Amino acid sequence: MLPVVGHWPTVPGGLRDTVRQELVARQIDEQIAARYPVGQRLRILDAGMGEGSQALRLARAGHTVTGLESDPELLQAARESLATEPAGIRERVRLIHGDGRETGVHFLPGSFDVVLCHGVLMYAEEPDALLAGLARMLAPGGLLSLVVRNAEALAMRPGLAGEWSGALAAFDSDVYTDRNGVEGRADRLDSLTATLAGIAAPLHAWYGVRVFSDNIPGDLGLPAADELERLLAAEDRAGRIEPYRRIAGLLHLCGVRG
Length: 258
Hints:
Distance between the termini: 32 Å
Oligomer: single chain
Radius of gyration: 17 Å
Number of helices: 10
């Protein structure tokens, strides 16, 4: 049975993780700004929050955030990070040991304005049921934010590394092994679009994440600030336009609850 937890362990501050977190943050902020008045304090659920990067960032922005995480080590890391924040931020964050399948145990339907589910679906045994449960947590008009591995780009990583057998195998499979040796499942845009429509949270916008930087080593540190900003600018632009976003390592999909 594949656990429903976030499996994105990288060196803190490493380039791959920085690109992912920064791009997704910009995209979430863009979607929130388009849907809610400036300054409105939102109720946010981060299901499978990992070490809490997005949860803490959103709490710093003034929102009330609930983090749900099933991995005890990741949950402890999130608690340690939260403990370093000012009291005003700490009081806006609630951390719960649990996974995305348990939302109905902890919360009433319609309890949140925004639900995040990042890096979770690839390890979920029943992803459609998980998504349906998360969608029920959204208030009408609420935003569902998903980050998934892009099945249409699975051949890119082995291909760019010159691993031709792996590239050929990836064309015909949605299953892959991540850099930590954990088996996961990638998703296709068309399939997830249909799923979101079926759970009354139809796709509103989508982005590619890590078009150019998905193949870099996980332990690579950050470049100089100006070089990092150019990389982020290139990634941000590519993740919004065809044909580049179609071959991104990750997809960020935003559905809106009807």
